[in-house]
Amino acid sequence: MVKTKSKPTADALGGSVTHLLHRALQKALDYHSEAAGPGAITQRQYTVLAAAAARDGLTQNDLVRATGIDRSTLADLVARMLAKGLLVRERSATDARANSVRLSEAGRSALAAGATPASTADDRLLTSLSAKKRDSFLKALATLTAEPTPGKQKTAKRKAAKAAKPAKATKAAKPTKAVKPAKAAKVKAATTAKGGKKHKKDKKARAALAV
Q1: What's 91's domain CATH number?
Q2: pTM of the predicted structure, to 2 decimals
Q3: Structural domain span for residue 45
Q4: Is residue 142 domain-resident?
């Protein structure tokens, strides 16, 4: 039995966009932690504070969409930040069934203090890229993380549905019509038949004369 050589796992991961983005995020979080120091807010806490500062009265669903943090992790973050006095919870002005959050004074101070570590971590992560490549990288990330517009989303769904449809079965070819015999063959057959009849008549006539 011939053994096939399988590619190393490292090669597969090296070509995985998901894996590479995850590794880049891990680096960014480590750089932020080193720049902020012990006791400071984390990178995710800084992200929540920045989103809440951009607009007052955000609900948990709003924060999930604004930060990209999953719902369960965000709920835990908000609970801890409420306990620390960084956020204030109040009834949503647009939805009576939901609660919204806003920055407290302590939250605004923590946000201002966290700006420098966040910027330092970003700069450190991008040091290996030239200025031109940084712009291209940031634009590519913005494109990847952008929410699709309704029109483009519908077009993408139509294309996906079209690609998923099985190919149409090809129609069976129509049987070819039998080729009609040539006119010469018809004439020959008719002549042969007439000749046979005449031969029979002549034979009968000779027999009558012989009697």
Answers
A1: 1.10.10.10
A2: 0.63
A3: 14-128
A4: no
